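not sure who needs this but someone in the group chat was asking about ER membrane associated RNA degradation from Anser cygnoides so here u go. i didnt clean anything up, its just raw.
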Amino acid sequence: MALPDAVSTCLSPPVHYMICKLGFEKKDIYDINDIVSENGEVHWQAVTEHLHYLESDQSVDYVKSVQSLGPICESINLHFKSLTKEQFVVQYSAWFRWTNYTELFLEVFDVLQYAQATQVALGLMKLTSCLERALGDVYLLIGKDCPFLLRDLLASEQLAVVFGQDVMDVLRVFIGSPYGLNLRNVLWHGFASPQEIPAKYCAMLLFLTAGLGQLLQTYLLKTKSILVHRPYVTFITLEELVAFPDLNHETLCVAEELVQVSNFVFKSMLPFWMAALTAFKQSRYADCVILLLPQLEVGLRLLFTTTNKCPNRLLTAEPSALYTTFDEMLKKHLDNKEINQLPSVLEEPAMEFLWDFLNHQEGPRIRDHLSHGEIDLKTFPREMANQIVAFAITLLCRFSDEDTVAFKEHMMIKPLMSCASCYRSRFHPISRLKKQVLECVKSIHLWPELPTVSEEHVQAVKGLEGNTETSSLILKMAEILCQLQQYLPQDCCSPDDPINSVVTERLLVKLCDKHICTLYSPRPVLEVLVVLRKICTQCHQVSEQVITSTELRYKQWMKKTLRSRQRHNYLRMLNSIKFLSPVLRLILLLITLEVVNVHLICKKTLFDYQQYLKFLKSVLQYTENLVTYTSPEKNKWDETEELTNKALIKIREFSDRKLTLIQSAT
């Protein structure tokens, strides 16, 4: 993979002209006092009068508006540079409170004083994401469901009511419209290099944010409303994210050398890479990932356009076409229905990593959450940044010239390459279901340790002598297990206690450890997984209810606080546990085998598939009823036997048909 020598920018000529030149064509000079007062009050009229509209449909004329607003942006940039930090804080800091992140905007002011290109671009990316989040909070003062896309948010009637249509039109000149400067998208999608983003546009957005705060205050006082900020997204299970070892200083130094020679790096983007690694060293983990994600997109876009032989897609698209972004690059098919070649080049582990961290709904969706301002940057976890940086290093290595082989064999890099090559999805529905199964069986494994009264007490209850019904249920389960035995490891068979000894945590771990390709699962598979996950959730709920009830009733038994009817009910519960444990284990085994053979789903006819789905939903109904009957409020233990008997008959019939299907398919 090599970058064409003629390509020096990722901005198409019209977009490059719009961002880098158009706003500099007019040399008008404006008195800053006409734009903002001494106490920082924005004179909106002096800004909005520079908007231009098309005669045809009265929509914004973005070309003329950018051209006319250019000198205003320059005046504001110079104004900010003339202020000390103390003066800026006095005049403006109060107007940033509505964003819920005043410190960020003060930080952007500091950046503008030195106008270091990479830091200006970083500041603009952080500013736009925070501004979008705050505008979404304002939207919810009036609207219900906040638009996901910034473009739709800025075009909403709700924000026009609060701020005024002309003010929103000004904002759309800078962000949110593909016809304007579109600064947020060209940066977050990795099209603009640091040198291509004029600092004056960052200054203008800082200024506009303060002005919006002033307008919002007026609206809140007038309507007696209170702005409520939505909570940030948090990464609860960080341990699930860890795929790579912790990066140390030496590894990062090797990475800095690798960046200089890797074909994965667009040379004009080199400052972003170096700044990202520096940010990691300085424990600025949010900054690191914000800088790095767009660069991963640039590198993958280069790989995508090379492997799919569409070099024109390397540049920003025109407003009438879509950008080539992560979303398209990770799809199975191109827009023309041909197979996307990028997955075959990246290979399955790398694709699964990208899907896990960027796309899967239960994954961190790190780019979405960061770019839309949904994460608290101040508490961004090192663990997350470590995974993104480590993965990026492996791509730098993989897509380098042969003469960089020494890097791949370096003692600090080799473990990263090894981890990357064996990565398996953690957030695909299949992976989440496997996790659910193992968590559920752990819960069921606690049952034998629960305190109970002696078996003599249970046998003394009228109707439980001999446990004939329970024995019948266990016999049915043993028959079903016998059908499945040929698909289980040979060493898991015990004639004494077939279900509890065979369907162990060890067996389920072994089955769940089988690798299943999760990329591009067809819709029928995803529909089945939804039902299977619901079944597993209900099984876990039953187990937790049994544990809670058993512990509580035993304490009450020992304290002799149970009434006669409660004592009988408790003993019936203990009898029911004898068949509930194996039946839940059996269902978990069936779920696991369904996952292992999930590829067979799409080989069925539509009729077969619908019958199959109907069966699974009947099992779901059974487990839902179990949750109800085993709840502390119901305690219908006799009814669980009847329910279970009917369910086992259905399962046995299905198991017969399922095995026939598997045999015919293999």
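also DSSP finds 30 helices and no strands in the chain. if thats useful
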